[in-house]
Please model this.
Amino acid sequence: MGKRKVNFGKMISFRLPENVAEAWTEKAKESKMSLTDFIRSQVKIDGVEPLVPRLKTQGPRVKYSKADPELIRQVAWIGNNLNQIAKAINQQGIIKRELELLQMLQTIKDEVQKVVNAD
Model:
């Protein structure tokens, strides 16, 4: 039998005493579940069985980047420029400013090349 896919389209939030929240968090960790999945697994309303949670197979998510922060800023800046150019093309059409935009794209391409070659 295939996995049952459930649409969780509605979010509900609520407050708990701190000691209860800590206890639930600890029980979720012991069960190798996220806190959300743990709570879902404990709730039974109007005879509806609780949802069977998925087990956590991976450790906690860690967000980090090995890239140089300055490089990331430069690439973001270039991406922002590209978005502005695309918006201008879509709003005004390419005929009127075609040459200027192509020159701007070439400038951006050259800057990207400089950034890539700098490393």
User: Anything to note?
Assistant: The chain has two domains: 15-60, 69-118.
